[in-house]
């Protein structure tokens, strides 16, 4: 076969390959609903991957791009997949529940115990600290 024949064959098969790859990719993908301006959102931290920062959507851009204003006044530009709606700040009905309403959550059956915080002033010798408290650690003889 010549190079020209191979190219024409690849050009003929390319749309089918692209369609198969698109179908395979979209199998695991999910569509995220667009956010509105003024919506409270959680922002994923880029290195820790935690949703520990909150802000407000100020502007929506093209291609799922959003501008978010943080409480400090800083503005961030983030893709939609790095933003989730902040459900902790949604409007909740005020006032007592109606008398005929059943309790919504499970009743707690286990008491929570308070743990004393670690005292920062404590100092530990490296040789006395061990994962196994009954084991005594000896100084290595090669030093």
Structure report:
The structure is a single chain. This protein has 143 residues and is of the alpha+beta class. It contains 1 helix and 5 strands. Strands 4-3-2-1-5 form a 5-stranded antiparallel sheet, with no helix packed on it. It is flat, with a radius of gyration of 29 Å.
How are the SSEs placed, and which strands pair?
Layout: H1 3-28, E1 40-43, E2 53-60, E3 65-69, E4 75-79, E5 83-85
Antiparallel strand pairs: 1-2, 1-5, 2-3, 3-4
Summarize the structure.
It is built from one helix and five strands. It has 143 residues and is α+β, with helices and mostly antiparallel strands.
Count of helical segments?
Answer: 1
Please provide the ordered H/E string of secondary-structure elements.
HEEEEE
Please estimate the helix content: 10-25%
Spatial gap, N to C terminus: 71 Å
**Approximate strand percentage:** 15-25%
> Strand order across the biggest sheet?
4-3-2-1-5
Note the main sheet.
5 strands, antiparallel
Features:
5 strands; 1 helix; 18% helix; 17% strand; flat; 143 residues; five-stranded antiparallel beta sheet; alpha+beta; single chain
